[in-house]
Each structure stands twice: as structure tokens, then as C-alpha cells.
């Protein structure tokens, strides 16, 4: 039992694990015609669900060498690159017209999902994120203290970015835990940036309760329990800090430009 544990009141809420996918990239309707006009339209099935090579969709050893490894091959139109354009962060290259069209759908690399620009989500604007620290350690991080994150949202009215504009939604309170280590504080900084960009929560239907028009998690996983292991959304879970950093990276949240952790974020 945690000191000053509030989980007894909110246990049914903080245990929810609902997600609303924001990684799905609908490239099905994209087509590309090269400068010579010789390229035909092609569906981007490999990238529809964010399954670029960077997310584990390797084809080598199953379907043969991945053609995206070829320097002059465009993975969007699936043809030879014409008017080459190389992305500055990940260094993947495409036809200029192909990648420009893809970025009109979503500003991320179709191969590795590296995000370009700043993504703003649909998290309700009335939320608060507060941070406190306790001296006790989490399982697997016994030599460190514990960071406790509290998220709170009051009831409100859905905006145009939500599923049912003008309809009321139910707020929520969530509590999450990080080790007070160097890596844990790094994740905290990234989560605070994600919260500022309205990416941590959204409005939708709870996969746990089935309740609609409520504030739910938005594909950035949190440890809502201090103990119990991964099956109970708690610690120990040695891979969690790396996994959540990857989830944040896909949304364009990296250490670049991230400031020191604050005690309260609106």
C-alpha cells in the first residue's frame, strides 16, 4: 500500500487500459505520378497501420530482401525514385512528389514513423497534470524514489475535434508512477511535453467499461499501479521506459527542446 494512496477511490478508473489508435495512417488513397508521368497509382498497404520497418515490419527472411533497402527505391510508389527527397531526421529517401503527398496525410516517415513538425492532439483543454515525489522505490528501482503523476479532467463539452461535438463528456482522474531515476525523469519530461500538445488523453469510448463520451487514454501507456508487474499495469517491467519513449517518438515527442520537469502542467 502506498503512502497517502488515493487508488482506493479511483481504482476502477486508473486500471482502465482503453486506447484510441492515433498511429493508423490512411495512405490507401495516395497515388503518385513521377516527373516523367510514367508511374502508376499504387496502394500503400505496408504503411496503412503504421507498420513501417521502424515498427517491426521487416520482410527479410520471410518475403526476401526488403526493397526499401535499395537506395534508389521509393517505398511509397514502389518504383524507382524520381526527383529524390531525403528526410533530414531519419535519412529515408522518396520521390519528392510521393513524400509531399504523404505528408499531406500525416507528417511522418512512412518507413520508420519518425514524426516531422509538431502534432497537436484532441485532449480536452481543461486538464491538469501534477507531479509529486516520494522516497519509496518501485520494484526493480529500489535504489530510487518514486515520481507520482496525477492527471485530472473535469466534465466538459466536446469540441469540433471530438467524436460528438456539442455533447457533454465525463472527466476523469488518473494516477501513474515512474522511477525517480535519470531515465524516469527523462520520460517525465517527454510526458509533460505530450500533455502540453494534448496527446496523452482524448474523448471516446472506454474499452474497459464501454462508457462513451468520456476522457480516455490515447496510446501512450502509463503505469497506473506501483506493483503487480506488467499484467497489473505496474512494476517490475524492465522494458517499460524504453517502450513508452518509442510511443512518444512516434508522436513526435523527443528530447529535443524539452525543458526540465515542472510540478504542474495545464
Q: How much strand content do the residues show?
A: 15-25%
- Give the tally of β-strands: 12
Our Rg estimate from Cα atoms comes to: 21 Å
Output the helix-strand order. HEEEEHEEEEEHEEHE
Low-confidence parts lasting 5 or more residues at pLDDT below 50? 1-63
**Helical content, roughly?**
10-25%
Structural class: alpha+beta
- Shape summary: globular
Nearest-integer average pLDDT:
79
Strand order of the largest sheet: 9-6-5-12
The description of the largest β-sheet is: 4 strands, antiparallel
Q: End-to-end span in angstroms? A: 29 Å
Helix count, DSSP H or I runs of 4 or more residues = 4
Describe this structure in words.
- It comes from Huso huso (Beluga).
- Residues 74-112 form the RING-type domain.
- With 266 residues, this protein is of the alpha+beta class.
- The protein has four helices and twelve strands; from the N terminus they run αββββαβββββαββαβ.
- Helix 3 runs parallel beside helix 4 (240-250).
- A four-stranded antiparallel sheet has the order 9-6-5-12, with helices on both faces. The protein has a two-stranded antiparallel ribbon with strand order 1-2. It has a two-stranded antiparallel ribbon with strand order 3-4.
Secondary structure elements and their pairing?
Blueprint: H1 7-14, E1 73-74, E2 79-80, E3 84-86, E4 93-95, H2 96-105, E5 128-134, E6 145-153, E7 156-157, E8 168-169, E9 172-180, H3 182-196, E10 201-204, E11 214-217, H4 240-250, E12 264-265
Antiparallel strand pairs: 1-2, 3-4, 5-6, 5-12, 6-9, 7-8, 10-11
Helix pairs in contact: 3-4
Amino acid at each position: 500500500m502506498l503512502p497517502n494512496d488515493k487508488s482506493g477511490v479511483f481504482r476502477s478508473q486508473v486500471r482502465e487500459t482503453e486506447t484510441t489508435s492515433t498511429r493508423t495512417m490512411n495512405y490507401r488513397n495516395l497515388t503518385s505520378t513521377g516527373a516523367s508521368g510514367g508511374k502508376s497509382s499504387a496502394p500503400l498497404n505496408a504503411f496503412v497501420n503504421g507498420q513501417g520497418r521502424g515498427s517491426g515490419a521487416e520482410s527479410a527472411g520471410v518475403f526476401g530482401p526488403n526493397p526499401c533497402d535499395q537506395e534508389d527505391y521509393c517505398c511509397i510508389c514502389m518504383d524507382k525514385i524520381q526527383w529524390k527527397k531525403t528526410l533530414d531526421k531519419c535519412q529515408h529517401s522518396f520521390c519528392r512528389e510521393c513524400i509531399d503527398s504523404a505528408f499531406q496525410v500525416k507528417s511522418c516517415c512512412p518507413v520508420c514513423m519518425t514524426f516531422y513538425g509538431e502534432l497537436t492532439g484532441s485532449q480536452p483543454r481543461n486538464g491538469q497534470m501534477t507531479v509529486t515525489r516520494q522516497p519509496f522505490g518501485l520494484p526493480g528501482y529500489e535504489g530510487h524514489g518514486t515520481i507520482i503523476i496525477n492527471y485530472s479532467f473535469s466534465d466538459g463539452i466536446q469540441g469540433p475535434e471530438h467524436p460528438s461535438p456539442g455533447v457533454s463528456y465525463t472527466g476523469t482522474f488518473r494516477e501513474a508512477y515512474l522511477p525517480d531515476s535519470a531515465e524516469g525523469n527523462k520520460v517525465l519530461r517527454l510526458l509533460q511535453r505530450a500533455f502540453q500538445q494534448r496527446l496523452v488523453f482524448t474523448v471516446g469510448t472506454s474499452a474497459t467499461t464501454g462508457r462513451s463520451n468520456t476522457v480516455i487514454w490515447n496510446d501512450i501507456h502509463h503505469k497506473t499501479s506501483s506493483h503487480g508487474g506488467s499484467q497489473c499495469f505496474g512494476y517490475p517491467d524492465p522494458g517499460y521506459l524504453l517502450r513508452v519513449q518509442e510511443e512518444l517518438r512516434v508522436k513526435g515527442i523527443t528530447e529535443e527542446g524539452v525543458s526540465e520537469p515542472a510540478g504542474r502542467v495545464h
